[in-house]
Amino acid sequence: MRFSRDRLLRSPRPHRELASRMVRLGELGCGKIGELAHQSGTQKLAQPPSPLTEAEFESLFPELLQQRYQGCEVVREWLQELESRAQERDWLDWLEKAGETWLANPPEARFVQALQEFGNLGDFPLAQRVGDLGQQLQERLRVNQPPSSPSGTGGITSPMAHQGGTGGSSGETGGSQESVTFENPEAEEAWRRIGQILFMAGDDEAALILANEAIESFPDEELLWAVHGEVLYYLGRYEEAVASYDRALFLNPNDATALCNRGLALSNLGRYEEAVASYDRALFLNSNLAQAWSNRGLALYYLGRHQEAVANCDRALFLNPNLAQASSNRGNALSEVGRHEEAVASYDRALFLNPNDEKAWSNRGSALKNLGRYEEAVASYDRALFLNPNFAQAWGNRGNAAGNSRGCFYSVTLSLSPHLQNPALDQRGYEGKVASYEEGLKHCPPDRDPEGAGLLNYCIGRAHYVRGGQDANPYPFWRKAATRYNAALDTLSETHSPEERLKALRELSRVLFELGQLEEAAEVRRQGSDLLRRLIQQSPSPGKQRLLALEFIDFQQLTVDLECQDGNPVAALMLAEQGKNSCLRWWLSGWMEEIPSPDFPSLQQYLCREKTASVYWHISPSALTTFLLKPNQDPIPLLASDESEASFPRLRQLREWEDWTDNWKRDYQDYRSDKSESDSPSRDHPWRRDMVSRLQQLGEILRIEALLAELADEEIDHLILLPHRDLHLFPLEALFPPKYSLIRLPSAQVGMTLAQQPVPPITSEAPLLLVGYPDSQGFSPLEFAEVEAESLSLRFERVRPLCGPQVRQGSLCDELRKGEYRLMHFTGHGGYDFDAPDQSWLALSGEEFLRVRELLDLPLSGYRLVSLAACETAITGQKSITTDYVGLSSGLLMAGVSMLLSTLWTVESAASMVLTLKFYEQVLAGVPEPLALAQAKHWLSHCDVAQLREFYEAELERYKLDDVRVRPFLLDQLDFLAERDPNAQPYSHPYYWAAFTLTGDKT
């Protein structure tokens, strides 16, 4: 007790609350301990407020910095408690002297970061001066900065300063919170000394020795366990840090800061789901912890949940607009979802707060590059390299932008330090790209930065490979590419850069395949597959396991090409099927090591039933392969090299396919933008105007004529189409003659599973769940949706309408759970989430959505048909699908729905209604669904105005004369058609009918 009393009396802080409690303890008459407590408390309260000494300023300053996460008001309260001993002017005077010492001998980077963050607190003089010192010290540190990691993402670098106590209601927004208090002043002194050594001296090992002694002496002090965790975190001993935080939380389960820091340590271990759970607990205790929201967003980013990451960073910035890392993290997530303009704005905000963040400059450049603003991107990368010439990722990114730029607008004489001003860096195109990479290698040599050198050699290899694909004789470039990939593999270690090593192995396998070195390509692919398997097994995060498997699915895709080249079409097809099923399961069900997939006899028996053939596509980084399956035969691979006399036909076909896809997506995006601005589709837009010729080009690329020639002598009238990757997005059915009825499948296994639970054919007595025209907020109304819903309901005897504002998630899910219906018809909007396909959605009333993830939990195996004919269920962005398409259709089929009627783009509402009703007419007449759709599409494409008038007149007859909802609408259409040429065919263009697809099993 006497030792503790001495520490209390020597403490530079007033500790008036603790001293008062000690006086009250003595007044209770607790014997000798009470007497000593009363004496110590009285002496502490009686101490005259002498000015702080230099040593006391130095002792208290780290504690002051630790208040920065609690906001400006808490900092002011902390200073006010010491006001009797030090005014703000006194702090500024001490800072002048301390600053001279720091500038002469710069402290650790984390201390400098803390100074800069403190400077963002507000406009009072002390914060401004601390921030200025931080900027000056950052400049000093920059010149001695070590080589950067190849990763350019950024993220969180240090735990939150610990404040103790419960989460409470306060937080970083400036609510009131008591500073750290200890019942035992010795424990407080130990805590303060650890902080001084950790944050001021940067001596992690010495801090750990003190922290170990502290928790041994005071094993029940929660805050000492928490700071013990922080020390271990800085030492990179994350498992032990988690254990220390767990002990702290055992002693105080309500410590939000410890929970937040625990999440950070878990993230560094790759245990992202556990990290998110830890942040959730912290935010439950204190929803105002901006740093916790930011860190949670970063963990979600690493799980590929980018939209959620953006929302978390938005929340962090709402709570603390000056949190630079949250702005940077937000920019990273926005870039991943294609919102590059917003990403640039986020990086600009981060750089306003911290202009010396080279990773933010580099990531800003990448967002500008994705916007096609290549010279601005180069300038942004140059700023990153001005700050850190050893930043390999920035050199790599600079090369990518320079390679795409058509001319140099920003000379390096204006943007880079003198020792970096190599005139070759002003080149653009292929030469400029390679020049950037080679210059980067000078600053990131293998002996000093092996991972950075590996990254840049990989980039050079990619540049040579792409350049070779543009040349009549690509082999010299491809050989150079192989050499550089091997150089990259020499320095990219499995321990430190396993994913970068995987990329190099993937590209080396690809180029060896192109060079015809099939055995070598197979060996490299095997090495890559083995490494991928180990990485997946070692990852503690199921989400990360799934992302790894999907990102490197092309190892498996390249194996399909190798089997084709070796003359093994059955093995190639079964590998393609396995890949499809894996992607479906991983996207919709999470990570699974064992994926069910059929054997070839079962697959062929299903896909080649009576008068049925199947067309199975497979796209890899090296080839586009079409497999034709006919009864009692091995698959027939239709390779580009079969009949083409052009040089490198396989590569040429793949390039033509990629160019065609890019043009279609770009024009469609532009078309949708025009449409959203004018609220009406533009018939003269290139996307619609050139659709016929573009589909003809697609047929040539896919060699449809050669495929049809293989079917010419067969009695085949039904085709099953199994697209791969981006092929899911396009109207493949329009490439085939009308003699064939067609249906799609995401994989053969999906169809075979559905065939085991056949649902009776549709009749007028089949129960129909009619989900009509929800008033979805933020979406334009579908003009004919109400007419379509009402007219369809008249064709069925048992209808449960759920329309307009009634279309809520709860009510819709309740109806779906009943299992009473055989059909569901939805007339509303739908959409695709590229980053998280299981989050693809149907828009309900208000701001509610029904997502694929929720559909998978519903009992839908009794539904023969779900119609989403009014929805745009394909991708609307320009990203390419590298795994396989998984969206609403796949999700509904996986949930048990037999067939899905949907559209690839939003068709003009009147045409959509007419075709949909014609389709149902045929189905109710007993026509199988694939043939019914083919007949409805053929009718719409050939009908004239006179036939349309007959259709509307027949619909009009279904309604009573006193109907005021639908009859006026139909009469308006008849009046409109009366003014048209009766022989005109208004819907002959494929825009009106080619978008409709049927997916599933017709058994």
UniProtKB/TrEMBL annotation:
SUPFAM superfamilies: Protein prenylyltransferase (SSF48439), TPR-like (SSF48452). This is CHAT domain-containing protein. Residues 142-183 are annotated as: Disordered. Pfam families: CHAT, TPR_1, TPR_11, TPR_16. Keywords: Repeat, TPR repeat. InterPro entries: CHAT_dom, TPR-like_helical_dom_sf, TPR_rpt, Ycf3/AcsC/BcsC/TPR_MFPF. Coiled coil: none annotated. It comes from Oscillatoria acuminata PCC 6304.
